[in-house]
Amino acid sequence: MNTATHPHGSVLLADDHGLVRHGLQLLIAEVLPQLRVQLAGSLAETVQSLQTAGRFDLVLLDLTLSDVHGLAGLHRLREEFPYVPVVILSAQDDRDTVLAALDGGAMGFISKAAAPAELKDALTRVLIDHRIHLPQSVSGGLAAVPSMEGSGGRELAELAALGLTERQIEVLGYVVQGLRNKEIARLLDRSEVVVKKHVTATLQALGAPNRTKLLVLLSQRGYRVPSMRASAAP
Predict the structure, then answer these.
(1) Could you tell me the pTM of the whole model?
(2) One domain, residues 94 and 20
C-alpha cells in the first residue's frame, strides 16, 4: 500500500442508526481527516444525495437500511449510479454475504466489528490504491500476496502476459468496478455478446469460474482497479 499518501475526496455514509452513523463519521475524521463525509439515514436519502449533492468518490452502504432489504440497496445504486464505487459496511460479514456483495458490484466489504486501523486501511485501499478490500472472512491470509512494493498494487495491464488483449483488459477493468455487461457494452459501443466473450476469455485466462471468484483472486494478488473517473464518465 502507498502509505505516503492519504485519501482526499468525499464519502457518502449510509446507515440508519444515528449513533453508528455519527460514530463512524467521527472515526473517519480521526483516522482520515482529509476525507469529507456526508451522512444518509436511508436508501432514499442516499439516492437523493447522489442525485443532488454532486459527485462522491465512494459510498459506504449499510446492508440493513430501514427502507430496503439486504442487497437490494446495493443493486439499485449499481443500476442507477454505476460510476460511483460502493463499499458495503455490515455486522453480517460471513463469507456468503461478502461474496454476494461482490457479485452485486461492491468494490469492498468492511465488517462493523473491524478495528479503526482496518477501516483506515480499507478506505485507503479503495480510494488511493484502487484495490478491492476484503474482510478476513474471505481473504484469510492470502490478501498479503506480494504486490509491487510502494506502487499501490499491480496494474491490470500486466495480465497481457497471460495472453489477454488490450480490449479484454479494458473490459476486465470495468468488471472489477462493478459494471454489468450491458453497461460495459454501452460504454464501448459494442454488443453485449462481444462483451460477454471478452469476460469469458478473462475468466478462462485467470482460472476463475465466475466474476465473484475473479474479484477475490485479483484482490488477493494485489491488482489495482482502474479509476472510475479516468476510465469513464456518467
Answers:
(1) 0.75
(2) yes
